[in-house]
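Why do we bother with a discrete structure alphabet at all? Because it lets us treat a fold like text: something you can write down, compare, and reason about line by line. To make this less abstract, here is a complete entry for Spermidine/putrescine ABC transporter ATP-binding protein. Read it the way you would read a sentence in a foreign language you are learning: slowly, and without expecting to understand everything at once.
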Amino acid sequence: MWANHLIAFDRVSKTFMTKNGENQAVDDISLTVDEGEFVSILGPSGCGKSTLLSMLSGLFQPTKGKVFVNNESVTKPRKDIGYMLQQDYLLSWRTIRQNILLGLEIQNALTSETERHALRLLAEMGLLSYKDHYPHQLSGGMRQRVALVRTLATNPQILLLDEPFSALDFQTKLRLEDLVADTLKRKKKTAILVTHDISEAVAMSDRIFVLKSSPGKIATTIEIPDSLREPLPFASRDVPDFQHYFQLVWKELNTK
């Protein structure tokens, strides 16, 4: 039943063992994501949003159910999945150029051609002139752009975005939302964003999965209309439909 979807969670549950006993993070999650889609997972703290990304990336296995990518069960980390986190995790002792090549080095995929590709991405982000700088010499927004280049340099099919804008000031966050959305659309990437920010989810997504907690379950799925999907995130906030969908998500989050 999952054959026509790039990503599928099939009745997935995850339980962690803690010193206080079992803690069920998510329960009976079934969802699909198609190639080229940008979807968000939204919900309160503790509803298992990041747990879903970790299982999709192969960092750990579900307790029950299965996760599929390209019809293959995910049992270990995959090269076709890139991960961008709230912290940029740039290595302080490496230059920006050396940082963006790190993933390629780890995958034994660093060649003159892949290095040129990474530097072209850095140029697209407006940061080529900083290639010989070190992370401490860049602002938070610039560092997150570098982290995006490092993620894209390995040419993943799927990008997992775990609250990558939450540590930034509001203006930088809005600019980076536009940059990320435009870049992923042009490069035809599939993305899953985990966020607490309703505005961000509505502005960036094709669909939003709203989760409830204790344990995490899908409360509803909200389809975002073309009127909001076609503009870049900043401009979509001025579209008349935006407030309606913001309120719709808000209501779902506050429904017991």
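What the structure line is telling us, in plain words: The chain is about 35% helix and 25% strand. Strands lie at 7-18, 21-33, 38-42, 64-69, 72-73, 81-85, 158-162, 190-195, 207-212, 217-223.
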